[in-house]
Every structure is written in C-alpha cells, then in structure tokens.
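Structure ticket #2291
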Amino acid sequence: MPTITVVDREGSSREITVSLGQSLLEIAQEHNVDIEGICEGSMACATCHVIVEPDWYAKLPGASEDELDMLELAFDLTETSRLGCQLRITEELDGLKVTLGAV
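Resolution: structure written out below.
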C-alpha cells in the first residue's frame, strides 16, 4: 500500500499508509489530520489547501480551471498549492509529501 507524508502547520510530519483512489482530504480526515474541508470535497472552498513538495508537483495531474479559481481564495498560495480534495492517490504518488496550507 502506498504511503504519504503530511506535514502539519507546526512542522511535525506524519507518514500515513493509504488506499489507492482516496483523495488527500479523505485521508487527512480519516487519520485526524487538522484539515478542514468545509465543503466536504465539492470544491466550493479552499480549506483543504495543501502545498505539494516541488519534486512531487510535476508528477500530479494538472489542476482544473475550477480548482485554480478556488485556490485563489487560499491563504499563502504557492506555486505548488493544490486542493486536497482534488488529489487522488495513485501508485505513482507513493511517497507523496505535502504540507498543510494556512487557514
């Protein structure tokens, strides 16, 4: 099973074993990671904003125009920012590392 590493807002990292096909938001909520996801993954907010490690960013599928529009609402937006609800885990993302965005 793939693993991902999530770094919280205080800088502590946590490695989580995940199932293929789950979104990063679903994984975070299942494992009590402090991520909001107020819209429950319907891409109507930016509260599941994560910052993807640069080495991993290029391996992700591109963001949709809707996701890019919603990301504009996120605090501390970076060039590697994504919405956790839009990132689904695949075998290629085994080892993915993200940091929770500011809320």
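Closing remark: The mean pLDDT is 94.
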